[in-house]
Amino acid sequence: MQATSLSINLPGPCDAKCPFCISKLTGGNEHNTQRLLNNLDKALKYAAYHNVDTVLITGKGEPTLQEIVYRIIKDAQRKMFPIIELQTNGYKLWKERNHGILEQLAAYGLTTIAISVSSPDYIKNAAIVGLTLDYNYYDLIAKINEIGLLCRVSLNLIEEEMDVEKLRCFAECLKSAGAHQLTLRELGVPKNPTDNVTIHNIIQWITENKLSQNTLAALGHEISDQERMLRTVPYGPAVYDYKGLATILTTCMTDNINPEEIRSLILQPNGHLYHSWNYEGSILL
Is the pLDDT of residue 140 over 90? Predict the structure, then answer.
């Protein structure tokens, strides 16, 4: 069995209020930080054995609010994983960008910062996800690029915020700011969400605001040029050079259809390792 990445899904609070919050829809809600830390070394060894080259640090909340991020980065670097990525809404990093936080993360071994956004307009983005309206993620991108880290922007595709013309302008602005990669992420829900009022509201918001199939097809046509195709990833989608950015169109929490090539190993907040976001029965450790 081969895996693409190891996702370390941290427990903890969040400084945003995303109406489409995926973390509330997935399992692993039991928090056991001590067990997670106890199993971290095992999970890293297991991932290395299965040819994983990328460690992704993400969270039920905002991972930059967790001090254990530094230990995880350091341990992954010590195990010689070539790509160590932090997935974040970027707000804390933006607020502290001139106070050495990015340099410290780089010194510990971080290679990549992936910023999740929901609109090409930084003010609209802040309004959608519930952050202060002065949060300008373009400034953060520039700082990340300045210190030599790789920057990927993951855009949550919302119908009102995206079409082909907006995508063209957005990609050009990202490239100008210093970004290197762009993920266009279709909003969706897991196969077996928990049934409660909060989750019902999230699913309703996603259903009402996700990108239409016509717009999704138009975006796919816009980026898909065989002469600019760079590679395919194991779980299916192709990566294209679009406006100078490595660009991919994908869906949240997709499992690979080939059981021998899984998308991600997941160390959940309960401290156990899984190979699927959708099924608790995929537990490994």
Answer: yes
